[in-house]
Amino acid sequence: MHQLTIAGKSYRSSLLVGTGKYKDFAETRAAIDASGAEIVTVAIRRTNIGQDASQPNLLDAIPPSKFTILPNTAGCYTADDAVRTLRLARELLDGHPLCKLEVLGDPTNLFPNMPETLKAAETLVKEGFQVMVYCADDPIQCKMLEEIGCVAVMPLASLIGSGMGIVNPWNLRLIIDNAKVPIIVDAGVGTASDATIAMELGCDGVLMNTAIAHARDPVLMASAMKKGIEAGREAFLAGRMARRLYSADPSSPIQGVIGT
Question: Residue 77 pLDDT more than 50?
Fold first, then answer.
């Protein structure tokens, strides 16, 4: 069985999931259980994990004793803001160093601001954070983030929440082939076949939220994503056949026939 290893810890599932956009915490937990995911990401600026004692706490539904909580900086547009957010998260999670960095550049398309992302990554790595980083599918900048010391690099497949799937598989292959840390597709997955393709390309994992939470049946879609991830990994290991325009390989040989 494939194991995803991040910062020295191994996980049975290569599917990572978010916790936003569900109708309530009960649906969140049911979908996460169906997905088989062990790493669950939480937007610190949008979700209560203890900041407000008067409100329901997500950690009651998704306990850190059962899941690896991955605090993220969704909604941050500067390196300083992202760093402050993750320092707060580390306090709320008793020193937990694993985090997801994302610094956005545009509130409409949510594309990453790469100069600010690189700046934040440098600061966080120096402060002892284990940084998993959302980024553009730029092979050069992905390598720069790895060399800074990020424990996983997470290029987008397409825009956050778009459901458009993998729009540039060639860039992903360049990133994967040049990486020494896990490469995890983050953003843009719409359905199980998108997750399968990511794993067939050789990605180490896929992180998603909207594709499950906005499905007509989120729990059933979570189950489909689990299977899609597993199928894609097996296909990658099996090695697909070469593409051909046509596959004429007649059972009756034509060797020796007149004109051949």
Answer: yes
